[in-house]
Amino acid sequence: MTIGTTAVWGRVEQQDFRSRVRGALLGAALGDALGAAVTPLTLEEIREAHGVGGVADFVPVDGRRGGVTAVTQLTLFTVDGLIRAQVRRDTGAWHPPTDVYRAHLRWAATQRDWGPDERREGDGWLAREEWLYARRAPARSCLHGFGDTTMGTLERPRNPDARDSAALTRSAPFGLLAGWEPQLVCQLAVECAAQSHGHATAQLAAGAFAVVVHGLARRDTLDGSVQRALALLAERPGHEPVTEAVRRALGAVRQGIPGPALIESLGADDSAEEVLAVGLYCALVGEDVRHGLRLAVNHGGPSSPTAAVCGALLGALHGETALPPSWLAEIEGRATLLELADDFAMEMTQGPALHNATAAAPGWIARYPRA
Q1: Dist CA 356 CA 77 (whole Å)
Q2: What is the pTM of this model?
Q3: SS3 call for 273
């Protein structure tokens, strides 16, 4: 498989890939929602509010159960940008970082505008989803990075010192580019992270996360996917903090029964490498998706980002049918998540049947305009 081409997909392969895409996006959203109410709390405060076992189910946020944060919002717009990049390639304009940036500018508009009635015709269908206009604790780094039309690059990144997890948590969709080679997936994730996060650690954590998801989307094991990410990290300057964090997560798997103390030893703040380490560890030791996400939430660190990382990994690994149905029934925006996941899977597996340089399905171009 090579960059920008559509591989030959059999029917079973298409169904498996769609399940993994759905699993990654829905799993990340479940983790985000499960941790949303307790992200600012210490472990003691979580236990005081929810019992010794901590959070076991959705806790109402913003007046509803299953409510998501800006983590999920930004992830959706990342997917939208990747689809638009594929569609725009027909015009000869092939620069995915720019299309992802434009998608994130559309997200930033949802954080300023009153609602979808203010959208332009060329914004596509996702920007018209009213529920996305709720402001859900967006990271300052993202609001600033996507606050104007000056795109950050690796040479001139936005927010040079930003090391938080907001670029990491929106990067799972890059890994779903199953037809790309892993080093190119890593590069794209790193370049897009620089649009809001200038610190190399934040950028490389996003790249490593994308590579792990990429391996899972291509039906590799979780351990095998992590090893590939470590190998690619080793080639990049400044990789040491991320590499060390990932290796600590791998080492912790052999250190006894999973629990909050062990999790907090991997990271207790919102730095990208520590969120990656915690999310990865919980995915490695989780007995199933529900157990892994509960581990990823019940600790003194940033619960929503760590659980979103864990959920994306477990969803990509096992597919959508492994996700808890009772949680899926309540997750905010489920219809939008499913619709976008299916559109992404269809674009990646059947893109040439939807559009080319001389013709295109009108409905598809209305959904993902080339402009």
Answers
A1: 23
A2: 0.96
A3: helix
- What CATH number has the domain spanning 21-367? 1.10.4080.10
Is-contact 1 9, C-beta < 8 A? no
Token pair listed for 5: 């081409």
**Closest by Cα among 132, 84, 74, 106 to 335:** 132
Matching residue, tokens 């001389």: 358
Q: Cα Rg for the chain, rounded, in angstroms?
A: 19
Amino acid at 297: V
The DSSP output letter for 271 is B
Give the integer Cα–Cα distance in Å for 186 and 224: 16
Question: Residues in the chain, how many?
Answer: 371
Q: Rounded to an integer, what distance in angstroms lies between the CA atom of residue 365 and that of residue 79?
A: 16
CB 316 within 8 A of CB 216: yes
Domain boundaries, given as residue ranges, for the chain: 21-367
DSSP labels for 127-182?
GG-GGGGS-----HHHHHHTSSS----SSS-SSTT--BTHHHHT-HHHHT-TTS-H
Q: Extract the residue ranges of the chain whose pLDDT is less than 70.
A: 1-8, 118-119
Q: What's the confidence (pLDDT) of residue 3?
A: 42
Distance CA 243, CA 200 (A): 12
Q: Measuring CA to CA, how many Å separate 323 from each of 57, 101, 233, 313, 320?
A: 13, 30, 30, 12, 6
Rounded-to-integer distance, Cα 262 and Cα 275, Å: 14
pLDDT of residue 340: 98
Helices (DSSP H) in the chain: which residue ranges?
11-36, 43-50, 70-88, 96-110, 140-145, 166-169, 172-175, 182-193, 200-217, 222-233, 240-252, 260-266, 272-285, 289-297, 303-318, 325-328, 334-354, 362-367
Q: How far apart are CA 297 and CA 259, in angstroms?
A: 11
pLDDT at site 8: 63
Specify the pLDDT at position 7. Answer: 56
Which of 135, 141, 93, 146 is CA-nearest to residue 113? Answer: 135
